[in-house]
Design goal:
The complex is a heterodimer of chains A (300) and B (290). With 300 residues, chain A is mostly beta strands. Chain A has one domain (8-31, 53-298). Chain A has two helices and 19 strands. Chain A has helices at residues 74-77, 85-88, and strands at residues 13-15, 18-19, 22-30, 33-43, 48-58, 63-71, 78-79, 82-83, 104-106, 109-111, 114-123, 130-138, 142-143, 163-167, 178-192, 214-228, 253-260, 266-282, 290-298. In chain A, the strands form four sheets. In chain A, strands 3-6-12-11-15-16-19-18-17-14 form a ten-stranded antiparallel sheet, with no helix packed on it. A five-stranded antiparallel sheet of chain A has the order 2-1-9-10-13, with no helix packed on it. In chain A, strands 4-5 form a two-stranded antiparallel ribbon. In chain A, strand 11 and strand 12 (130-138) form a beta hairpin. Chain B has 290 residues and is mainly beta. Chain B has one domain (9-27, 49-286). Helices cover 4% and strands 51% of the residues of chain B. In chain B, strand 7 (82-88) and strand 8 form a beta hairpin. Chain B is globular and about 80 Å long. Classes of the chains: A mainly beta (300), B mainly beta (290). The interface between A and B is large, with 54 and 37 residues.
Chain lengths: 300, 290
């Protein structure tokens, strides 16, 4: 018989049947309930019917969320820059599949019908690269046997070997010393519930209840936030760096992140090519002046 | 094979230092353990840049070349990086460093002793064998000895009694800034960053530099001040420590100046074995533009 509390070492986290090198995970579920109030029986004292509360009533799908922080590794994410199965679990791109991710486990709980909502990672000098992914879950969770898996040596993506590149729209490249990079890609989704599909009382024979028949991809946006020694001068209202007499035909600002493992294996590269949506410069006691530049790109 | 104490040379910024009593060098790497859910501890990865420390103890037997000043009278090594090496085995082997910054410089002296100089250096660059293993490139100032009769401590606002010991130290805080490696698609195809940025991209001195001066006087005419008067007045003094050549008393070897320093503590010591003494501690702050 297992202990009442699950140890970190026994709390395996799997997504789509693939084990993740997760440092933390947060799984939450919440039914959407509304107070059901109806007119009750006739009350002669008021010569009318009193309103009475009957019960809380579900007005939407049972919805959950999984937020997971994990280490990117050469073994699990890619092999020499080529995507493998587990990388596709985090792949947000135009034309990506709308199919749910099934066979997921967080500690002692298993669940299906999960959809990727966002993926992000941070790079900083001399630091291991940690990524975050967030998923929407529809339906309930079931208890499973807690498990662990064996790993002794992993080649993690690391800021020691990984590198970045910034090219402002006017072509300035060398002015930026990169203190940090944060990449985020977000997919906007919409649930579709068909009227007939969820009407049958049989859907309540399991705790999952009504499940969306489709979770479509509505939009995809990616963003890179650069912490740097400088920020972009001559920024115009179009979000470009403008040194010439016209804002026409200026290139987009491009920020790239190249992820390599500590052993020097190429893992993945990410880029954002778009407009500068904000930038800031701060200076305070005991610190250097720090610039921050946010560039966004619309994928879909 | 071992190397005895007279077979080594300590070279800092091209000067072979004289009067060296001891040298300590070390470096450290900080690691972060990686723990994974469902596994536990897997490995530890590097979490911060390599930093090393060198500590050099010398007897003051000449003008200190590490105390060179610019035209404004500021110590040049407050802002400059230094290289150094310990050479041994007939100068064929060395333990060197690059991109060092002085983090503390102190002088201590008591009656009957030659002053001791201690220099602490923080290394932000490379450290190890074959690093900065160059021979002497500059001529060290000639050997000159002070003795207890050739040292002078003066304070601007009172006449000082006989001094039995003094210490002077400057603590210099430096801040290194590191950046991510840089590269482009060509570097990605080559599998390595174009600019690795293993060293800091900038190292700055954080001002003010704190100067601490302490000396002990044999109580004669001096009387400890009334503390509330001092708090309200908060007077500043200039303290000069001048060390002359014992053979040529007009030729100065080294001078240490505390400008606009405040008396921050006084203590009186009296016991059955010694003369009554009073210890005074001054503290000053040197800014970038003074």
């Amino acid at each position: 018989m297992s202990d009442p509390l699950l140890r970190f070492e026994d709390g395996k986290i799997s997504i789509g049947g693939k084990d993740l090198f997760a440092s933390s995970a947060n799984l939450s579920l919440a039914p959407t309930l509304e107070a059901g109030r109806v007119y009750g029986d006739y009350d002669p004292a008021i010569a009318g019917a009193r309103t009475q509360f009957v019960n809380f009533l579900p007005i939407n799908n049972l919805k959950g969320q999984l937020d997971v922080s994990f280490y990117i590794s050469a073994e699990q994410f890619a092999v020499d820059g080529n995507p493998n199965n587990i990388e596709r679990i985090f792949d947000i791109a135009g034309g990506m599949s709308e199919a749910p991710i099934n066979n997921n486990i967080v500690g002692r709980y298993g669940f299906d019908n999960m959809y990727l909502k966002s993926f992000s990672f941070d790079m900083k000098p001399f630091g291991i690269i940690q990524a975050n992914a967030s998923y929407d879950i529809y339906g309930s969770v079931t208890k499973v046997i807690d498990r662990r898996f064996e790993k002794s040596e992993i080649d993690f993506a690391h800021g020691l070997k990984s590198f970045g590149n910034v090219v402002a729209s006017a072509g300035n490249q060398d002015q930026f010393e990169i203190a940090s990079l944060k990449y985020t890609i977000i997919v906007g989704r919409k649930t579709h519930n068909h009227i007939r599909a969820n009407e049958d009382t049989s859907i309540n024979t399991t705790p999952h209840g009504a499940i969306p028949v489709r979770v479509s991809i509505e939009n995809i946006e990616k963003e890179m936030v650069l912490g740097a020694s400088e920020f972009v001068d001559n920024l115009n209202s179009y979000g470009d760096q403008q040194y010439v007499s016209s804002p026409e035909s200026l290139n987009d600002t491009k920020i790239e992140a190249f992820l390599l493992s500590l052993q020097g294996q190429r893992i993945a590269r990410f880029s954002v090519s778009g407009k500068i949506h904000s930038e800031s410069m701060s200076i305070q006691e005991g610190q250097y002046a720090k610039g921050s530049i946010t560039v966004r790109e619309i994928v879909k | 094979m071992s190397y005895s104490n007279y077979e080594q040379k300590v070279i800092i910024n091209g000067y072979q230092l004289l009067g060296v009593q001891s040298v300590d060098g070390n470096y450290g790497i900080s690691e972060k353990p990686v723990r994974v859910a469902g596994v536990g501890f897997i490995d530890a990865t590097i979490d911060s840049p390599l930093e090393g420390n060198f500590s050099i103890n010398r007897k003051m037997v000449s003008t200190d070349p590490l105390l060179s000043t610019n035209s404004l009278g500021q110590y040049t090594l407050d802002e400059q990086e230094i290289d150094g090496v310990i050479l041994y085995d007939n100068d064929t082997k060395g333990f060197g460093f690059t991109r060092g910054r002085i983090s503390r410089y102190s002088v201590n002296c008591s009656v009957g002793e030659i002053p001791d100089i201690q220099v602490d250096i923080t290394v932000y660059g490379s450290l190890g064998k074959d690093v900065a293993a160059s021979a002497t490139t500059k001529t060290h100032p000639p050997i000159r000895y002070p003795d207890q009769s050739s040292m002078r401590v003066t304070v601007s606002d009172f006449t000082i009694d006989a001094i039995s010991d003094f210490s002077y130290s400057r603590a210099i805080n430096t801040q290194p800034i590191y950046a991510l490696p840089k590269g482009n698609i060509d570097d990605w195809n080559a599998g390595t960053a174009g600019t690795k940025n293993l060293d800091p991209i900038q190292i700055d001195t954080q001002y003010p530099i704190e100067t601490d001066i302490n000396f002990t006087i044999i109580a004669d005419s001096y009387e400890i001040r009334e503390i509330k008067d001092r708090i309200q007045a908060a007077p500043k003094s200039d303290v000069n420590i001048e060390i002359f050549d014992a053979q040529a008393p007009t030729e100065i070897i080294n001078r240490f100046v505390g400008k606009n320093v405040r008396l921050v503590s006084e203590s009186l010591n009296s016991n059955t074995e010694e003369e009554m003494s009073i210890s005074l501690t001054y503290k000053g702050y040197e800014t970038l533009h003074n």
